[in-house]
Amino acid sequence: MESHEHVTGLDDFKSVVHLLHSALQLPDHQMILQTKLLLRRGELQQDLAPLEKMRNQIALEAESRASRLGWAGLAYLSFQGGFLAYLTWNVFAWDVMEPVTYFISCGTSMLFFAYYILTKQELLLPDAKDRQFLHIFHQKANRQKFNIQKYNHLKDQLAKVESDLRRLRNPIQLQLPVDQIQPKT
Predict the structure, then answer these.
(1) Does the structure show a pLDDT above 50 at 183?
(2) 3-class secondary structure per residue, 59-81
(3) This prediction's pTM
(4) What angle in degrees, to the nearest 10, is found between the helix axes of 148-168 and 2-86?
(5) pLDDT at 141 over 90
């Protein structure tokens, strides 16, 4: 019996020593870790600054070109409709233009279906614009020697550091008393 009580007492003593050690060392460890993370965040932001500037410039150009392509598509469809209306009412009769408009409609439907077969996506303006934006962005990035993989890797590292800082600054991790955790009203 006495050895069991001795072991329980020893375990309790170890637990108290561990808690005391944690209470004394944890704040220093957290401050050191926070300092390292803040330095790492600064380094990453410094490495990302020129890449971010170049990415913003490429994205602006790609967005502009994708938008122009959308407007060009609208202009083409408007011109086509206007031209068919002109031919129907001013040049030829509806009897002549009906088969022409039928074949133009079938051709347009085949183009939309070809888009679906190639992309496995329905042709919706936001999706097509995003797809065109990405295509143009990657073309321009390759031409300007913009390293997308490096940029994405640095952004992922920065997000991880930010997440670690938020987790480290969490009031539960800081082991603050309840009155310091709750906002003052």
Answers:
(1) no
(2) HHHHHHHHHHHHHHHHHHHHHHH
(3) 0.67
(4) 140
(5) yes
Other CB atoms within 10 A of residue 142 CB? 11
Q: Which two tokens stand for residue 117?
A: 């077969």
Distance CA(144)–CA(137), nearest Å, equals 10
50 pLDDT more than 90 = yes
Q: What is the pLDDT of residues 156-168, one digit of tens each?
A: 999 999 988 888 7
* Assigned token pair, 76: 């083409």
Q: Give the C-alpha distances (Å, rounded to integers) separating 8 from 2, 18, 20, 118, 169.
A: 10, 15, 18, 71, 36
Which tokens sit at 30? 């957290």
Distance in angstroms (rounded) separating the CA atoms of residues 100 and 55 = 46
**What single-letter amino acid sits at 5?**
E
DSSP 83-122: HHHHIIIIIS-HHHHHHHHHHHHHHHHHHHHHHHHHHSS-
Place of tokens 């009412």: 89
| Measured distance CA(11)–CA(128) in Å, rounded | 66
Cα–Cα dist 98/58, whole Å:
46
Q: Rounded CA gap, 161 and 37, in Å?
A: 6
- Above 90 in pLDDT, residue 150? yes
Signed CA dihedral, 140, 143, 149, 152: sign only: negative
Q: What is the pLDDT of residues 20-49, one digit of tens each?
A: 665 555 567 677 888 888 899 999 999 999
